[in-house]
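quick one before i forget lol
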Amino acid sequence: MPPPRASFASAFRRRARFAAAALALGAASVSALGAAPEKDAGGGDGEDVMIVFDYAGIPPRPPIKLPGLTVEAARPTIATAARALEAVPGGTSLVDAAALRTGRLNTPADLFQLQPGVLVLTAFGGIDHPRLSIRGASIQRGGDPGGGRGILFLQDGFPVNFSDGSFDFVEFLDPAMLDHASILRGGNALALGAATIGGAVNLVSPAGAGGPRLARVEAGAHDYFRAQLSLSATDGPRDVFLTTTSFSLGGWRDYNHQEAARAALNFGWRFAGGWTNRVYLSALRSRVEITGVQTLEAIAVGSTAANAFTKLTQTGRDTAQFRIGDRLTRQFANAGTLSIGAYAARVTYDFTQGPDITRAGNTDAGADASWTLRGAILSRPAALTLGLRAQLGRRDQRVHPNLFTAGAPGGAGPMHSHNRLTAENATLWLDHQLALGRGFTLVAALSAAHAGRVNDNLLAARPGGRDSEKADALLPRLGVRYERKNFQWFANVTSNWEPLTWDAMLAANRPGSAQSGVTAETGARGTAGPLVYEITGYRTWLHDELLSLATDAAGTPTRFGNAGRTIHQGVETAVSIDLLRLAGAGARNHALLLRAAHTWSDFYFDGDPVWGNNDLPVMPPHLLQAALQYRHASGWHGGVTLAWQPRGGWADYANTRRAPGYAVVGLGAGYAPKKGAGFFLDLRNVFDRRYVSGINSGAGNFSAPATDRARFFAGEPLSLFGGVEWKW
């Protein structure tokens, strides 16, 4: 059994000086803020605190300007989220899902388009198996549905990751069902209890008060069809929101059918004294055929054939999920907030993968609480957030041989593996913001995390006993913001940490320790006339990065394990500008908006004994996305989009074979009034380029004679989609 990770006490000693400073600052904050009386939100010192640190409650300030997005007070939920992100001293993004309804809205790539630092490398289109990475997290996916890791996904504040930290999009992410998404990249999510290198994404549902009421149908190429019905209503202090969606896709390759049905319901009450309560319910069912990877040569000639082995074995999966959550909140007169929540989720899936059929059931539950106090310390505005999250989950997993015959659906043979996997997590965090004067704000945070993992081998014929792992970490963060008029500069230094997932526990020679590192980050955001911008640079020093080290330099199979020292660094940039205003020809009803997002990623081994300083696979060095869009106040719109990747990522650790670069252009137009009937046309890949949209990493050296060169996913060919929508 691998040796356990260093104890909590030793982790504390390693970072004691940094942590002690944060704890002292937090203790002083609790004392000072706890003694501060509640102020009337309409004036006095309380109003000043709301303006400086506004996580909840919208003071009378001008509309917030973000790249490509103007947040008006008429959208209180998204405006609250925007003001919260303004207070973060690091890279953040806000996605307004409603603004994306001018085109096809179905996949994670549709939702996260034009978001700096967020790369979605699609696999087979539709809902299946994209590689979503933030700052190098989750650049590799395991073979099972829990393969994604390194990013905390929240749905209305509740984790949608499994309790071991892994995730998969087929189970939860439907962009059309969202109001907005807040993205906190890297250590900037530490205040949400996220300690991993990728940060956190909070997916927020609409509510009955102000929620959409619409019917929508989308259809198009490759037998694509999607329908949605959303209803919302209010009755005094009560409100309710319901949305249902159905989806199917034939796919542009053979053996590529996908289908899904989803439903989500939430209802809430407002009580006296600032209390509110909201209940969330959701259910989904999906079925996916997995067409498999291709070679570069097959993609270049436009082959639509499925991978021979995946079709032969009928690779695919059937997934069902049910979730329930309840959140109780209170808004205090001095803009302080209290939030208490609990949730439970049940996920089952049958996954046919080559020679095996995996049948698993996941049960996850958790609770969280956060308390934000606002007041003053030495006459300086201050805010302190204390948070706690606990999770417990169990997976019962059985593996059977796949009795396939020449492409016919196979049955499940006698079970040859049976594991009960459990995971427990607890995170306690403190986030403090103190205005220093002259535009400077100090931000200090401290997170204490515990993780436990257990793998019980329950198959009597092959007893393996119990394999367990416990790990603890103390994660400090120190940052600063400087604000002046329409300009903000920020910087921070943050610790990150990622314990083992169930995939790692099941590996034949599993990793011996959790992944950890330190990130330094700086950047700026602001406005200059019609220009809105944000630029962030970061560098992360990682130890024991968890990677699928499938083969060594000679092509010999090795293991999923710790990679020693690695470096993740990059620059994330987003800009938008109204060209009509820039030219002095702006009119109230017209806008010509140019938006662009560029992500530079440089991830590599740092003196590895096998791979030296080679680049890590999968991630492209540069990705530029741009859109030029005309909008009229009446709802008419049209524009052109560009996705440009000068060079693709490497497919192997030896850096012998990489995906070629590409440039893909799209066109769109339509009519989207605030009420009544609208429509859209969305033309993807106008010039029908053949390109690589994603890579299935794991090869050590492609120059080895026996290496399987089918490691790539083909991008979407020329495709036309259209839709109609009725809003009332």
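fyi The longest strand covers residues 380-405.
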